[in-house]
Every structure is written in structure tokens, then in C-alpha cells.
Design brief:
Blueprint: H1 13-22, E1 24-30, E2 36-38, H2 40-45, H3 57-63, H4 74-80, E3 85-92, E4 98-109, E5 115-124, H5 126-148, E6 151-156, H6 166-172, H7 176-179, H8 190-206, E7 210-217, E8 223-234, E9 240-249, H9 251-255, H10 260-263, H11 269-279, H12 283-290, H13 294-301, H14 314-323, E10 326-329, E11 337-340
Antiparallel strand pairs: 1-2, 1-5, 3-4, 4-5, 6-9, 7-8, 8-9, 10-11
Helix pairs in contact: 11-13, 12-14
């Protein structure tokens, strides 16, 4: 057993206390004899009983996750150059549990200036690593969602002033300096600017949800309609810490209005399926509400487009779905769609 220092409570009690409370383990490696010593804490980190195995680099390597093992010869080069050893890796314990360890070591030189011994300490960093990986996954999902729905996410200080909005800059081509403060308004259509800032001041003053629709000049110079919504993030005492919000592209909805032809257009099979999904309805739910047979609904949903002839069942199906909160879209270009009303 490795004993690093003597204390008033004995040679190992203080060390054991530090290791148990700090989740640490200490090791030493004699480069001349190639023998290693591990403290009780290190045995515990590896999921081994103290002195149940002969400490060695080969044993540690065998327990290291295959993806985290050092390439052959790498450790030897680090030691021969007396470089610090600092890395994080996974070990697989005998019970198949995977733990993340952070290892830090120093190479000690002999009187001739050659590496003679390496000492180091390891810490269990599994929780931190798992939290970091979870955050990375969450960030990746967030970025994918923002991209998928063409959304600009923004934030401001409690008074409503902006420091930077990276996604807004990407959309508009403005610089950090141009966006700061109230500069972002320069990308808002001149006819919409007064309304946008008036609504924003009112929301900031009252601490209420911001909800406004206005045109934004994009990087290429064209204007598109966006719905911008924001909400205050409050401290525990109720004061506002910051504002966060999103801007969603609603241009297609704003530039075309449903025509009488669209209102009477026949639903497609995909629209009926989508509407059921929005309402979380089964075929049976729709059949009972529209008083149409389930077999008819299944037949209609299998169509790649609209029925080629007259289909009297579509009218009651459409009526009950719209009444239940679904809006059907028939844009001039693109495929018909459905969304919550």
C-alpha cells in the first residue's frame, strides 16, 4: 500500500479520509522496476478490493474502455520527455459499470536528469462527464429544432436592450455592433418599425409576453414576415433577469389568403392523417365524430392525393377536424398541409 505521508492519526487515516470524501485515488510508478503502487482509493475507483490484484499499467490498460486506450508507444514517449500526464478516460469495472476517471501525473527525474518515477492522482468525474454529454445532446437537439422550423432565438437584458443576437445576425447580415442596443430595428421594415418597438416597450414596461408580427430584411435584401414572441425570465424575487424569445417565419401565411377554391379543395390522405396526429385521434375517434365508417377513413388516408371523383365523406371529416382545432393549408406552391389552429 502506498503511504505518502505520516500524520498524527497514523500513516493512512488522513489519506483515506481525503480519498473517500474527494473520490480520489493515488498511484506511483517506478520506471526502473516497472512496479506500480495504488492507494486504497484507487482500488475503489477501479471497483477492486484493496490488494486483490497486482497494480500494473497492463491491468489498468485492460480495464480501460477500448476507445480510450492510448496508442502503442504514446505513454513511453510522454514519460521519456518528462511531460505531464493529464487526461480523462473510461474504465470498465468487473461488474460492467463504466466510470469516467480524470488522471493527472508528474514525471520525477533522478540525479542524472532521467525519468525515474511517476506519481499521480485520479478522480471520478463520471457525473460531470455525463452532465456534459447530456448538455451536448440537448444542444444538438436544440440546434436541429431551430434549423428545422426556421426560427431565430434571441435574448436581451432586463431593460430590453440587446447585446448580441447571433441567429439574428445570421439572418439579417448585421454585425454585432449594428445589432446592439436598439440597432436590430434597422433590419425591420420601415412601415413596421414603430409598431414593433412600441409593442416591445409595452411588454418590457409591464413584464408581459411580447407578441408581434413584422417584416425583417434578410441578408439578401428581401423582406419576409416573422412572428416574434418573447417572455421574461425572472429571479426568485420576481425581478426580471433577462428576456428570451423566438422569431418564426410566417411569410407564406401572410402573403396569401385562403381563397374560396382553397376552402372547397378536397383534403388529401396525408392531410387527414396529419390532422388525426395533431388531435391525437385514432381512426375510430374520427369515424365516430364524423359519423363516417372507419374503412372509408382508412381508404381515404391511403390516397397519395385527393380523390379523383366526388367523395361525400370528405365534407363531414373536414368539418369535424376544423371544428376540433385543425387548420388545412393549400398554398399556391408546395404540398397541402395541416396545423393546429
Amino acid at each position: 500500500m502506498l503511504v505518502l505521508f505520516e500524520g498524527p492519526t497514523g500513516p493512512s487515516e488522513t489519506l483515506r479520509f481525503v480519498e473517500e470524501k474527494g473520490g480520489a485515488g493515488i498511484w506511483s510508478w517506478d520506471l526502473k522496476t516497472q512496479k506500480m503502487q495504488w492507494s486504497r482509493g484507487l482500488f475503489a475507483l477501479l471497483g477492486l478490493e484493496p490488494d486483490s490484484a497486482e497494480p500494473s499499467y497492463a491491468l489498468l490498460r485492460s480495464m480501460t474502455h477500448p476507445e480510450d486506450r492510448r496508442p502503442e508507444g504514446e505513454l513511453e514517449r510522454i514519460v521519456s520527455d518528462a511531460m505531464p500526464l493529464d487526461r480523462e478516460f473510461r474504465i470498465i469495472q468487473a461488474n460492467r459499470r463504466v466510470r469516467w476517471l480524470s488522471s493527472r501525473g508528474e514525471v520525477l527525474l533522478d540525479q542524472a536528469g532521467k525519468p525515474s518515477r511517476v506519481i499521480g492522482v485520479m478522480f471520478d468525474v463520471t457525473r460531470r462527464r455525463e452532465a456534459s454529454l447530456a448538455k451536448q445532446a440537448s444542444d444538438a437537439r436544440y440546434r436541429a429544432l431551430v434549423e428545422a422550423i426556421a426560427t431565430v432565438v434571441w435574448s436581451s437584458d432586463p431593460e430590453g436592450k440587446v447585446t448580441d443576437m447571433p441567429e439574428w445576425r445570421k439572418l439579417t447580415g448585421q454585425t454585432v455592433e449594428q445589432v446592439a442596443g436598439w440597432g436590430w430595428l434597422e433590419a425591420v421594415h420601415p412601415d413596421d418599425k414603430a409598431m414593433a418597438i412600441q409593442a416591445w416597450h409595452r411588454s418590457v414596461e409591464k413584464g408581459e409576453i411580447y407578441d408581434a408580427e413584422f417584416r425583417i430584411r434578410r441578408r439578401a435584401g428581401e423582406y419576409r414576415w416573422y412572428n416574434c414572441r418573447g417572455a421574461p425570465v425572472r429571479n426568485s424575487d420576481g425581478s426580471i433577469r433577462e428576456w428570451v424569445g423566438i422569431c418564426i417565419d410566417i411569410h407564406e401565411r401572410k402573403v396569401w389568403a385562403p381563397t374560396s377554391a382553397a376552402a372547397s379543395a378536397a383534403l388529401t390522405g396525408a392531410q387527414i392523417r396529419a390532422a388525426r396526429g395533431i388531435l391525437n385521434w385514432s381512426v375510430r375517434d374520427l369515424a365516430e365524430s364524423a359519423k363516417v365508417s372507419a374503412s372509408t377513413i382508412r381508404r381515404l388516408e391511403e390516397l397519395h392525393g385527393s380523390p379523383s371523383g366526388t367523395e361525400p365523406s370528405l365534407e363531414p371529416i373536414r368539418e369535424v377536424l376544423e371544428r376540433s382545432g385543425v387548420e388545412f393549408l393549400f398554398a399556391p406552391t408546395g404540398k397541402p398541409g395541416a396545423r393546429p389552429r
